[in-house]
Structures are given as structure tokens and as C-alpha cells.
Write a structure and sequence with these properties.
This protein has 172 residues and is mainly α. It is built from 5 helices and no strands. The protein has one domain (14-122, 136-171). The chain crosses the membrane at residues 12-41, 61-83, 95-114.
């Protein structure tokens, strides 16, 4: 009657969750940004009429996966802060880790609800008889915003990855 489960005694290794989520997310983003997108551009698929709907589907799924990883990272840092399992050198780094992980949640939300629908809408070919060979000016500014957010995501993600890895080495 008084038997306790070993599973109830084990706590979640938040640093492992953070390291896995950030590693998976950033490596997936690098593959998408540096391998898949340039190969689609070089093969000419981005100039085809159906690419806007296919791109919306691909990026929509990946953006939701990014949001899941960002939520895991934020939950992990909140868990580490709540359980006092991470030894920060100062209070500023602790607060910055929460702020940066919150920023990492905001970036996929911008992708999901603003950038992907806007880019897909601009990329749709509504007139079958009109062929356009140039990219609209609004699409260029959206691409600049996308790349700016990507750089911000990689800087914040690698900073958090470095802090978490360094702290997990001190936990052992």
C-alpha cells in the first residue's frame, strides 16, 4: 500500500531538454536555410506557379515545429529557474536567459501569423495570363525581415545553448 514509484522520484533534466530542443531546432533551421532553400532556388522551383501554396505548407509545418521547440526551451529555462538547478554567475544572466527564450517563442509566432501568410499571398499567381519575372518590392522587404529574424534566432539560440551547456557541465 505504501509503495512508491521510482518514476515519481526522478525529476526532469531540464538542461537536457533545452540542449536537445535547441540543437534540433537550430540544426533543422540551418538545413532549411542553407541547403533546402538554395537548392529550390537553383532548380527554379520558386518561379513555378504552385510554389506559393507548397511553400506555405512546408513553412507552416516547420514554423509550428519551431514553436514547439521554442516552448520547450522557455519551459526548460523556467523549470531550471524554479527548481534552482542552474548556477548562474549573476542574476542578469538568469533574467537574460528567460528574456531570450521568450524572444525565441515570439519569432516563430511572427513567422506563423505574419510572414508566412504574407509571403504566400504575395507569391500566389492570381492571373494565369500574366507572367511576372521580378519579385514584388513587398516580398523583398518580407525576405529581409525573415533573414533578420533568422540571424536574431541563431544569435539568441546559440547564446542560450552555450549558457545551458556550460551550466550543465557544472551540474554534474
Amino acid at each position: 500500500m505504501n509503495a512508491m514509484s521510482d518514476r515519481g522520484l526522478k525529476s526532469i533534466s531540464w538542461s537536457t531538454v533545452i540542449l536537445f530542443a535547441l540543437g534540433f531546432w537550430l540544426s533543422g533551421s540551418l538545413i532549411l536555410d542553407l541547403l533546402i532553400l538554395p537548392s529550390l532556388w537553383a532548380s527554379g522551383m520558386m518561379n513555378q506557379a504552385g510554389f506559393a501554396s507548397a511553400g506555405y505548407t512546408i513553412f507552416g509545418m516547420f514554423n509550428r515545429l519551431e514553436l514547439l521547440c521554442a516552448a520547450l526551451v522557455l519551459t526548460g529555462f523556467l523549470g531550471l529557474r524554479f527548481c534552482h538547478l542552474i548556477s548562474y554567475a549573476d542574476l542578469l544572466q538568469e533574467r537574460l536567459s528567460i528574456i531570450l527564450s521568450g524572444l525565441l517563442v515570439i519569432i516563430p509566432l511572427i513567422y506563423i501569423y505574419f510572414l508566412t501568410p504574407q509571403m504566400s499571398g504575395l507569391g500566389l499567381q492570381l492571373n494565369l495570363f500574366e507572367t511576372t519575372s521580378t519579385m514584388p518590392a513587398a516580398m523583398i522587404s518580407l525576405h529581409e525581415g525573415y533573414w533578420l529574424l533568422e540571424v536574431l534566432k541563431f544569435v539568441a539560440g546559440t547564446t542560450l545553448l552555450r549558457w545551458c551547456y556550460r551550466s550543465s557541465c557544472h551540474l554534474s
